[in-house]
Amino acid sequence: MTAFLPEGKRIDTAENSNALSSYENMRAAMERGDILEARAVLCDHDHNLKVDLPCMRGVIPREEGALGIREGSVRDIAVISRVGRAVCFVIKEFIRRENGMTAVLSRADAQQQCARQYIGGLHVGDVIPARITHLEPFGAFCDIGCGLVALMPIDAISVSRIEHPDERFSVGMDIYAVVKSVTDNRVTLSHKELLGTWAENAARFAVGETVTGVIRSIENYGAFVELMPNLAGLAELRDNLRVGDTAAVYIKSIIPQKMKIKLIIIDHFGEPHVPAVPDYFITSGHIECFTYSPPESNRLIETIFR
Taking the model in full, what pTM does it have? Predict the structure, then answer.
């Protein structure tokens, strides 16, 4: 298991719990330079984070709260927003006082280690784990290691178009992504290439079946219904259809040459679509080229990773 995980994925592991269970184990972890995790419980008026440790007090001084705080390139909200959440850190030192032992921790050093040893070694096309941290209309921000964030633009999330990333993801969701670009340790991600080709998705359905889908757009010639995040079909219009509705659809035909699925809407419901963890075809390794279109199609849709 990689040492550089999205923040929060390490906190409940036996390895992490053992390292924090005693002063002796924490000192050994400090000497090894281990990255550990615990929960931030308070941010004081000087923006120092108090961290919940099982055997002593823990503090992350403000300037150690995030990579860039010390230099002024990152705002204090990066520290304040961690209260109530898991934080990663390395142990800097122990201070013994009359009221007990305090561990001085550094999240910034853990992030620097991650940036240098992990993110700096990523290549375009690498498939990596990530965790959704927040969503904006233009894309999803993902923690790719120790709280360091990469952007996934909305048009890279799936082949089936969406109006907002919250139609596909929720904050805190663990996903996989593929590295789209790396510039000065700034990473951009893609996602749709991990969700299968047209043929792989279409193989899950058969003519004559009635299945559920999500209405993604309504045009004057029909309604596009998403069957899978990378597969949509065209249905004849019905009254009172709304984008985002769940629909029961009958599969009339599947035409690989045209990458088309013709549908008939049997019924539709006002229930909002709740995003589920994606069903991936690829979760590891490296991608050089992703070809979405089937061989028999006249259209070529592919992504080249360079």
Answer: 0.90
